[in-house]
Design brief:
heterodimer, A: alpha/beta, D-Maltodextrin-Binding Protein, domain 2, 2 domains, 9-stranded mixed beta sheet, two-stranded parallel sheet, 15 helices, B: mainly alpha, MetI-like fold, two-stranded antiparallel sheet
Chain lengths: 422, 281
């Protein structure tokens, strides 16, 4: 009996030591991206399996992601080896929490992205990792309803509204789908698509007469929008369940629909308004916390993530596109092919009016988004008068810009000092 | 051990536990709520109260509590009286009625969402029976009454059992002699309920109401699952300040406002249902 206890003790002792060693050797990759189970699995089994250094990939919601990172930073020591998140999440951090990465010699092919990654300091605080954008997608059953003379690759907002109205008339129910749910990315539509397309700005023109017209247009579109949209967050679900035929969303939130039924859906560029075809990139980056235990291993993994082969594997796993020059293979998943082509058409359009990600807002990024979400909820859901809402929200937006001192970004005209709300 | 010291020694572990995991965090939260870059201030409170959604979420929270709690009170009184009258199968019925207690509130919200959704049970049932041609959208911004009804129903289903359990225990404590005496004098069952059960149930009612009302002000997951952002409540605003906006100060401020409302309502209930001094069961 005694021997058995001793054996059991020895075995559990060895087990504890082993797990401690294993935990020490793995670089903890703490990410807000590739969260769905299949994507996380692909990250672990395909993307990261080629790394010389063992990586423990742990995706999480932004809230818990931030909480742990801040706790480690405040404690002055940590176990997180590598961070993966969106530009906006990094921008909300104190840049001192992130180790400088210039010595790695890594960068994206876009200078704009590299500049953003400095987070207002002199050195790169994260390395651009992968990019995506927002596009439109439609069920092929909706195509016969396209207004006469409309080119799906060069739609205007008016044509989109007419199209959605035709579909509603023909099918007896509104089938435009908009991600207005709690986790939906509606604010990006207003910041990167509606405002640039109608006002050629975001902050300066927030309460302009053109903005008023933009919201009126959006109300027209809303007439033909599935009212359950306030519960929609990932439009691929509604495409697949037939609850929406024409939708707007993030490319990776449409991917499942294309991958499951590639022949049923088409992807196409966002529509254009009076001031061009507004659109906005999504940028994710990789960073190393200043408290990382093993800086060398972390940097080695980061370097691995930026290799062209890894970037292509990441594209397959997450539907986010590479940020470095790579030759794309022909056998990419249907979603990547469809949305990639739509993004290319959108960027190459003559009337393209690309916007940038909000920059310089620091930890006020969430508040900035909320101004747009609140404006939407008040104008569209609560039916408050547009002018009054814009005037009211304008003061909030102005406070944020003054507080952060963030200068204007495209398509707003450059400013000296904080971007003014006109 | 000294008999005078013993009680203190016995409650020491709990006290230490509460100090570390309740009082200390509470002090930190208060610090966050009243703190700012320039020392103590009410800025956080001013910020959250002046937001356009605050008054709506406050109103929604209070309205939900005002509708749900009385219904639950009536239901649980009815159920408790029924259970206590049962001769056989009492335990079984009690177990079944308390099942919702064992389900997390988020799960409860999701269960009711599965019922009310556009492709949910209610729609498929009504469609199957031929009442409707196409699935209806019950939970939408156009139909706020229905959103409210769905949330209220889910809350009633989920949390009535908390009051029920307390009231069943309370009814069990009432001596049978009172009822027998009342019967001898010819009191009707309704009269017996009004004149004996209710007054003698006061301490249990007090506990049940205090617990339930506090929980009602903290309602969150059920609302989040069913209403999303359509039906803002105070706890949901706290969550969105903390996690969507990373504004801990404002989140702490709303949390303290919820605490203040809870304390105020607790005091009112304690006062209204107090047992007069010297009175015993």
């Amino acid at each position: 009996m005694k021997l058995r206890f001793e054996l059991a003790g020895a075995v559990s002792g060895i087990a504890i030591v082993c797990s401690a060693v294993a935990a020490q050797a793995d670089v903890l990759f703490w990410s807000t991206q590739a969260r769905p189970a299949e994507e996380a699995q692909a990250m672990r089994e395909v993307v990261l399996s080629g790394s010389d250094i063992a990586v423990d990939y742990q995706p999480n919601e932004t809230g818990p992601w931030l909480t742990r990172l801040q706790a480690e930073s405040q404690a002055g020591s940590g176990t997180i080896g590598l961070l993966g998140s969106l530009h906006g999440d990094f921008a909300a951090l104190d840049p001192a929490m992130l180790a400088p990465l210039d010595d790695l010699g890594l960068a994206a092919s876009s200078e704009t992205f590299n500049e953003l990654s400095k987070l207002g300091t002199d050195t790169m605080k994260y390395i651009p990792w992968m990019q995506a954008s927002y596009v439109m997608a439609a069920n092929k059953k909706a195509l016969p309803y396209l207004p006469e003379g409309a080119d799906i690759d060069a739609l205007t907002y008016d044509q989109l509204i007419e199209w959605s109205a035709n579909v509603q008339e023909g099918e007896g129910r509104p089938l435009f789908g908009f991600p207005a749910g709690p986790k939906g990315l509606k604010h990006r539509f207003f910041q990167g698509y509606l405002y640039p397309s109608y006002t050629d700005g975001v902050v300066r023109t927030f309460a302009s007469a053109e903005a008023e017209a933009a919201w009126e247009k959006f109300l027209e579109l809303w007439e033909h929008t599935n009212p359950a949209s306030t519960n929609f967050s990932f439009m691929q679900e509604q495409l697949l369940s037939d609850d929406a035929w024409i939708v707007f969303d993030h490319t990776s939130r449409l991917a499942q629909a294309f991958n499951e039924r590639p022949d049923d859906f088409v992807a196409f560029p966002a529509p254009a308004g009076p001031t061009g075809r507004g659109f906005m990139p999504v940028l994710a980056g990789l960073a190393i916390p200043a408290t990382a235990a093993d800086m060398e291993s972390s940097k080695a993994v980061l370097d691995y993530m930026m290799q062209p082969e890894t970037q292509i594997a990441t594209l397959r796993a997450t539907n986010f596109f590479p940020v470095v020059e790579v030759e794309l293979p022909d056998d990419l998943p249907p979603a990547v092919q469809a949305t990639g082509a739509a993004i290319a058409t959108m960027s190459a359009a003559e009337d393209a009016n690309p916007g940038l990600l909000p920059a310089g807002l620091g930890d006020q990024g969430g508040e900035f988004d909320r101004v747009f979400v609140d404006t939407f909820e008040r104008i569209v859901l609560a039916r408050q008068p547009i002018r009054a809402v814009l005037d009211d929200q304008k003061t909030r937006l102005n406070d944020i810009m003054q507080e952060t001192g963030a200068p204007c970004w495209a398509p707003d005209a450059a400013s000296e000092g904080p971007c003014p709300v006109e | 051990m000294n008999a005078r010291l013993l009680p203190y020694v016995l409650i020491l572990p709990v006290t230490v536990f509460l100090c570390i995991f309740f009082l200390y965090p509470f002090v930190l939260v208060a610090q966050q709520a009243f703190g700012s870059d320039t020392g103590w201030s009410l800025d956080n409170f001013r910020d959250v109260v002046s937001h356009w959604k605050f008054s709506i979420s406050l109103w929604n929270t209070l309205l939900l509590a005002a509708v749900v709690v009385p219904v639950q009170l009536a239901l649980s009184l009815l159920m408790a009286t029924m259970v206590s009258k049962m001769k056989r199968g009492r335990d079984l019925v009690l177990y079944v009625w308390t099942i919702p207690l064992g389900i997390s509130d988020l799960a409860a919200g999701i269960i009711w969402l599965a019922i009310f959704e556009q492709s949910g049970f209610l729609n498929s049932m009504m469609h199957g029976l031929g009442f409707i041609d196409a699935p209806m959208n019950f939970i939408s911004y156009q139909n706020m009454t229905m959103v409210f009804i769905a949330i209220a129903l889910a809350e009633i289903w989920r949390a009535t059992a908390i009051m029920l359990v307390i009231l069943v225990a309370g009814i069990g404590l009432i001596p049978k002699e009172y009822y027998e005496a009342a019967e001898v004098f010819g009191a009707s069952p309704w009269k017996r309920f009004l004149k004996i059960t209710l007054p003698l149930l006061r301490p249990s009612l007090q506990t049940a109401l205090v617990l339930r009302v506090i929980l009602a002000f903290e309602v969150f997951a059920v609302v989040a699952a069913l209403g999303g952002t359509l039906f803002p409540v105070l706890m949901g605003e706290t969550y969105s300040y903390q996690f969507d906006l990373s504004n801990s100060g404002a989140a702490a401020a709303i949390a303290l406002i919820i605490l203040a409302i809870s304390i105020a309502s607790t005091l009112v209930i304690l006062r209204a249902l107090r047992v007069p001094k010297g009175a015993t069961i």
